[in-house]
Amino acid sequence: MRCYFAILRALSLAIRRDLAAFQSVKVNNFFLFVALLMYGALESGVRPASAYPFLLLLGFLLLFPLSSDPLGKIPPDRLASWPLGAGQRFALRLASLALSPVLWLAVFLMLKTSASLALFFLGAAIAIQASIVLGSRVAARAPRWNPWRHIPQIPGRLGGLILKDTREMLSVLDFYIALLLTLGVSAYRFFGPDPDPDAFPILALLVALALSTYAQSLFGLDSASGATRYGLLPLRGWQILLAKDIAFLGVLFVLVLPLAIGPGLTFGLAALAIGHFSSMRLHLPIERWRFTSGRLAIGVAQVVAGIALGFAEYHRGAAFLVFAAGAWAISLAVSPYWAPRR
Fold first, then answer.
1. Are 290 and 24 in contact (CB under 8 A)?
2. Angle of helix 319-334 versus helix 261-281 axis, rounded to 10
3. Residues 29 and 46: beta-carbon distance below 8 Å
4. Helix and strand tally (H, E) in the chain?
């Protein structure tokens, strides 16, 4: 029994650390936008119904990491090396389920709302986890079904870095909330009975806002060994940062293509111009399959500048897109001076 308690204690510690990573959503630009919507609605004395769709998107995406198997945090080789029989492993599996955050949330919903809602929530979490396990096994046995392997590489000396940075960007939840927004708005645009053309620039800005926090920590997924390899490349610092910017703008371009390219790219360029300082100076860490964390002051500057320039581009013309591109180019040029001295 002593070994069981030791294993469960280690799992509990790992899960607590994992849940602490979700605090990053508090300083994510998209979460701040939703919080502002709710605050404005409450101040006006009405129910914050406008924020419900965005809260639903956040909750749906958070179910993916929350529904993960607690025993999955133990390396498979280490788990296989433990001298446990089949019955002991089954008992450990049952005991570990009690540590799952999804089970806690289901119990909370059952006590505070209804059993049907709790069962629906639990079923959705189980279905999501089953799809994750199935997808990972299919990708391992048949690599051609792995969508990341089909991302084309841009020719040139920066092509390999751009491909790596694009794959890194697709491993954070910011991209997926932007993707869901794009898919929903695209369905409204092409299949809605009478779509409002003035809504698409606003929603393109919202897609860019969902990605903007990532511009604060472009090196957040690079390990210490990765930073060392950057120093061995025959490239200057601004060229490495340029590869990350191209990956960011490429992903953003694809997402706003069915909505409004000009306002979306204007917001993205402004977010990069402001986020370069944070990326080069602060080195904020990112965890895969989590929302990106940023700094509040920088996030507010990104949102205000991006929305102002994006609206101006839509109403006044492409001169504001050129202005944002110029600010981005200047920020890129001076970015090496922001790097901390070693």
1. yes
2. 20
3. no
4. 15, 0
Whether the CB-CB separation of 73 and 14 falls below 8 Å is answered with yes
Which of 150, 174, 198 is a domain's end point? 150
76 plus 165 within the same structural domain: no
- Phi-psi group of 220: left, alpha or beta (phi > 0 → left; psi -120 to 50 → alpha; rest → beta): alpha
Q: What does the block give as tokens for 92?
A: 């450990």
Q: Helix (H, G, I), strand (E, B), or coil: what is residue 220?
A: coil
Residues 212, 275 contacting (CB under 8 angstroms) = yes
pLDDT in tens, 218-263: 999 988 788 788 888 899 989 999 999 999 999 999 999 999 999 9
The residue range of the domain holding 125 is 2-26+48-150
pTM summary value: 0.86
235 DSSP 8-state letter: S
Amino acid at 254: V
Q: Amino acid identity, residue 299?
A: G
Q: Is 263 exposed, middle or buried (0-12, 13-18, 19+ CB in 10 A)?
A: buried
CB 256 within 8 A of CB 313: no
The reply to whether 74 and 97 lie within a common domain is: yes
Cα 97 to Cα 69: distance, rounded to the nearest angstrom: 8
